Amino acid sequence: MSGDPLLERARALLIRTMTFYRDDPRTSTWLRGRLERLDQPLRIAVGGRVKAGKSTLINALVGAELAPTDAEERTQVSTFYQYGPEPKILVHTPHGAVQNVPVTTLDTGTIRDLQHWRPDEVSRLVIESPTPGLQAITLIETPGVASAAVQETGRSALAQILSEADAVLYLTRYPRQTDLQFLQSVNELQTARCVPINTIVAFSRADETGSGGAEALEAAERIADRYRNDPTLRSFAQYLIPVVGLLGQAVATMTDDDFMALHNVARLPQNDQDALLLSADRFINSTMESTPGPARQRLLERFGHYGVVRALTLIRSGVTERKKLQSALLDESGLNLLQETVHQQFVERQDALRARSALLAVDMVLRANPRPGVQQLRGEFERMLANAHEWNELRLLSALDSGQVRFARPLQAEAKRLLGAFGSAPHARLGRDETALAVDLADEAAAALSRWREQAVNPLHDRPHRDAVRTVLRSCERLILHQTHGPQQPQTPQQPQSSQHQQNPQRQQSAHGQHGSSGQHGPSGQQGSTGAHGTSAQRGAHSQPGPQSPQQGHPQRHHHPQPGQPQNAQGAHARD
Fold first, then answer.
1. What is the pTM of this model?
2. Which residue would you say has higher pLDDT here, 238 or 126?
3. Residue 479 parent element (H or E)
């Protein structure tokens, strides 16, 4: 099951669609860019309202201060943070030109200045860095929802996200109507409605919940739990995670000076520490020989009031080693949980998400540019949507994690394991190690199938649980099939016959070892996405536009079952 055929089926359909539209340069070129994306690192768009903490959380996830943070709205253009062997900044213009800004190091001031350019001057920035945290994913920082940049360009959230990313990490202090409208727009197309598995919502400034203080994170968790049961938000995202982004960034980039400064403050008597933390002014300006005022100011700016308090509490309780302090603070910040969720929901399932992006591209083209003979492609598209068991597994995993579906504890754990929560390989799904014999795996798969067949006739299950049991049964059957016949081999893509323009799928993909960016225009006229190993370099604007926006087409209707405060004055630090 490691050789997942879903991605290859989606790739084959994308190739056939590109061949079908080969006489339309705009559409075929746009689709070619989507084909190239399938072999690039997974792209995660980081979105949210203005000042939701996008830059801060990107730095925390990456483990390096790449994205500039500022006290004011600065991000006017989408910024791609991707892996590269050496620091590089590429500036893309709306007309398709690409300029390489010579740099030896990535200075946040330079990036900040470029982000402040108007969208009609710079369409996107591509920041390449040898940071290990970017090897598996590319992060896309987007302008704030309802920001001046988005209003000025008129680009819808739907077109932007679908064009640029395979998954979405959405940041908010607490969901508002604007947030719900944005998340709804991401799921407007048929494919997205059938497979709403690519969005995680993070309460990114959880330390400011209520009146802040030591109980802020617990209050944020209670709010998140309430929204997890909200049917509107639950239909867009199954994961809502409170995170203290500023603390996560500070811990991920902690220096020796930060560590020593915290220790020096922690050595003071408890009463003196409490007096220092009464206000930001007192913390910075009080006379203290062991830690100068500028060092304390840096602590407050980097960790925030909540982070400083938690760090001092941990040090006083005996956590005096730097690595242990970092680990404990990462747990306190919620960043560990967020990283685990991103890895499990996005990175581990990247083939399914890439296949989703490929089918979204096909769906957009077929709707925006219908023509005679398209019925066969539409039929293939519908069959793939109906038979993509991998997406059913992802939906059910989300429902199990969020509590929408609950079995008895032993069955709950087994269901998650069989669905691939701890690895998609057969031995991982069956709870065995890599050295397990094939006959033992086959016996274990048969035993699991028997247990879940009993659940299928359990009269106490309601419809959501019966549907969940059927999904687990299908996973068990696929495990048995895998043991009987071996890994399924993807079918060779069949292309429409034509006397001209016969295309080899391998030749349609460029050499992905080179770093660059796709200058393609998306379905709404905006430029296409850029991955960590982009391959379409500097194509002209007039040869690159994609099909019309789906809003301008004539979509067909299809019916598919739907899956079931004020900032603390002491923490007035710059966040984006």
1. 0.75
2. 126
3. helix 463-485
